[in-house]
Every structure is written in structure tokens, then in C-alpha cells.
């Protein structure tokens, strides 16, 4: 969770200072009040506002919070300012050809972002950074020979915090691909979020009984998988350090 600076005021009129903090997780942002008891400790944390749209995450970018009676009702109000940032994505690739490579190109969502001519004989490399909007994107890297023959690699990637919400009870919520759907393209984006007890050990993506991806740092994951055309079974596991496992399974068709 990302947290903002602290501010203090007596919000419940008990004569003791209370603390306000803004916290963000991977899906939304919440304003919390910690009621002070006048002895140096605080009561149970009380959420007072949560962003209503999944993916509205701005707690880590809160610059200032100010306390005042802005509406003249003799109660303390909270005002805050938050900045936004556009993530930078780094693209790195190498290519080899039996012919003579001339250049490499990066295309994202059908638009060419860059071309580079770091090529010698049958080898080439590509290194580029760009700011992109949050969300899921389709990328393609081309390697071009001097005769303009092309080799390509397609991939999906997600920028920013995943917008996949956690289930209401312990378990795994697979947001993509949707059960029974036909994916828009290949590679296939697998996106899931889990709610578990204890401490996370790992999340895993299995396709047709074979493990394809492991995440050990977060209870949310997004993986881009190259799969053969046809119907596939996707299972996502979440396992805590005690060995308790939760899973969810969907079936989707890859074009």
C-alpha cells in the first residue's frame, strides 16, 4: 500500500487530535481517520472515503493535505491535491538473421513508435523507452533485412496498476481471459487478483495442465502468453506460506 503524508485534527469533537492518512492499493484509494484517545495511541482505523472506480489509484501521488472548515458547518474538512504520472515502459530486443539485417521497428496498438538501425551483418538490437497510457496494449517488434523481408514478434503488455478486482471472499478472480470467450489476439493476456489469508508465497498460471507463469511479489498478476490456436483451460493458483491454495479456472479460445 502506498501512503500519503499525515495530517491531524479533532474530527469527532472529543477534544483529542485524530490522524488522517490516504492509502492506495492496486485497485482504489481510501481516506482513513485514526481517532486519537489522548494517551498517545489511537482507536480502530475508520475509512471515510473510497474511490468508486477500480483503477483510480492516486494515494501514492498525494502532494498535500489541508484541514479546515470549508463549508462553515463547524466541522473539520479534508482537502488534498494529487498529481498523476504516466509510466515509462522500456523495450529491449535482439534479432538474428541468416541474411543482412537493416533495422528493427516497434509498433504499439497499430502505430509505429520507433525504428532503430543498430544492425551489423545478421544481427541487430533495439533499446527504446516511451511513456504510454495505463491499460493493456498490443506490441509488435519487427526485424527487417536489406531485402525488406520481415520477422516479427507479437506480445501484449499492461501498463500501470491492474484493474482486476479481488474476490469478496478468499479465492482467485480471473479477469482475463473471460470464461467462454474468444481472445482478441495472441499472445493472450492472463490477468487475475487473489484474496488470501496469511502471507503470499506465490501465484501461478497453468494452461492445459502446464505451468506458464509464476508471481511471488503481488496478489495480482498479468502475464502475456503465446499459445497455439484452439480452446485452452486457464487455471490461476494463489498459495500462502502455510501451503493453503486457492484456484480459479476458465476456458477460452485462442484464434
From TrEMBL:
Keywords attached to this Swiss-Prot or TrEMBL record, sorted alphabetically, are: Signal
This one is known as Ig-like domain-containing protein
Q: Which Pfam families match?
A: Big_7, FG-GAP_3
Amino acid at each position: 500500500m502506498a501512503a500519503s503524508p499525515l495530517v491531524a485534527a479533532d474530527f469527532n469533537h472529543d477534544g483529542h487530535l485524530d490522524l488522517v492518512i490516504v492509502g492506495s492499493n492496486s485497485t482504489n484509494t481510501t481516506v482513513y481517520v485514526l481517532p486519537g484517545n489522548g494517551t498517545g495511541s489511537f482507536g480502530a482505523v475508520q475509512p471515510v472515503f473510497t474511490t468508486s472506480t477500480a483503477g483510480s489509484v492516486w494515494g501514492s501521488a498525494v502532494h498535500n493535505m489541508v484541514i479546515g472548515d470549508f463549508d462553515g458547518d463547524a466541522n473539520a474538512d479534508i482537502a488534498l491535491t494529487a498529481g498523476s504520472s504516466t509510466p515509462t515502459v522500456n523495450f529491449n530486443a535482439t534479432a538474428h538473421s541468416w541474411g543482412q539485417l537493416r533495422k528493427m521497428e516497434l509498433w504499439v496498438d497499430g502505430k509505429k513508435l520507433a525504428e532503430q538501425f543498430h544492425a551489423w551483418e545478421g544481427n541487430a538490437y533495439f533499446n527504446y523507452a516511451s511513456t504510454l497510457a495505463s491499460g493493456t496494449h498490443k506490441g509488435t517488434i519487427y526485424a527487417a533485412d536489406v531485402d525488406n523481408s520481415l520477422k516479427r514478434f507479437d506480445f501484449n503488455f499492461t501498463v500501470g496498476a491492474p484493474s482486476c478486482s479481488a474476490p469478496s471472499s478468499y479465492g482467485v478472480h480471473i479477469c482475463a481471459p473471460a470464461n467462454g470467450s474468444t481472445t482478441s489476439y495472441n499472445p493472450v493476456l492472463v490477468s487475475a487478483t487473489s484474496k488470501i489469508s496469511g502471507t503470499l508465497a506465490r501465484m501461478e498460471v497453468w494452461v492445459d495442465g502446464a505451468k506458464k507463469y509464476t508471481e511471488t511479489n503481488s496478489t495480482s498478476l498479468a502475464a502475456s502468453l503465446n499459445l497455439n490456436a484452439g480452446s485452452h483451460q486457464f487455471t490461476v493458483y494463489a498459495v500462502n506460506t502455510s501451503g493453503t491454495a486457492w484456484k480459479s479456472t476458465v476456458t477460452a479460445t485462442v484464434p
